[in-house]
Amino acid sequence: MEGGAYGAGKAGGAFDPYTLVRQPHTILRVVSWVFSIVVFGSIVNEGYLNSPSESEEFCIYNRNPNACGYGVTVGVLAFLTCLLYLALDVYFPQISSVKDRKKAVLSDIGVSAFWAFLWFVGFCYLANQWQVSKPKDNPLNEGTDAARAAIAFSFFSIFTWSLTSALAVRRFKDLTFQEEYSTLFPTSAQP
């Protein structure tokens, strides 16, 4: 791959889907996207239980609606964030301004680190609420696999978002060097 400012090939170049899907940060973003679908999908589908003696549904995580709400909210917002940054990955080679590329990479670092933190909080919260759940609230063990899946994929998401942030930091360092190099040794036209 030819080098360019902030990880892009030549600015204004043609879109190359093969290059896009081979980039590690794109692969991690797609994996994070799938993990977020698993988390919010499993909570929405099987995270709420009905009791014959009660008229309202309750959350499988210790009857705490905030635990289910947090898992669904973080899952949906992470899903949308992944889509936004996948779109940015597609658009990135078209950005010709070095300052705009730098802003895009810096936002990737911050957003990915923030999501790693949110997934860590979510994992701890869901695992704690699952641990203190009472067996009498769910005697038939309905939805227990989905609850465990949401906890497990919250844990996996910590690593995918952390790795995405680390790759963005590496990308930023590599590309800052390229910017400094081009400042020190400008390409001048031959007479």
What does it look like?
The protein is mainly α and 191 residues long. It is built from five helices and two strands, in the order H-H-E-E-H-H-H. A two-stranded antiparallel sheet has the order 1-2. Helix 2 packs antiparallel against helix 5.
**Cα distance, first to last residue?**
29 Å
Shape: elongated
Biggest sheet character: 2 strands, antiparallel
How many beta-strand elements?
2
Structural class: mainly alpha
Write down the secondary-structure element order.
Answer: HHEEHHH
Number of helical runs? Answer: 5
Q: What structural keywords apply?
A:
191 residues; two-stranded antiparallel sheet; mainly alpha; 5 helices; 2 strands
Write the layout of secondary structure elements.
Blueprint: H1 17-22, H2 24-46, E1 48-49, E2 58-59, H3 65-91, H4 98-131, H5 144-184
Antiparallel strand pairs: 1-2
Helix pairs in contact: 2-3, 2-5, 3-4, 4-5
Care to give the gist of this entry?
With 191 residues, the protein is mainly α. The chain has helices at 17-22, 24-46, 65-91, 98-131, 144-184, and strands at 48-49, 58-59. Strands 1-2 form a two-stranded antiparallel sheet.
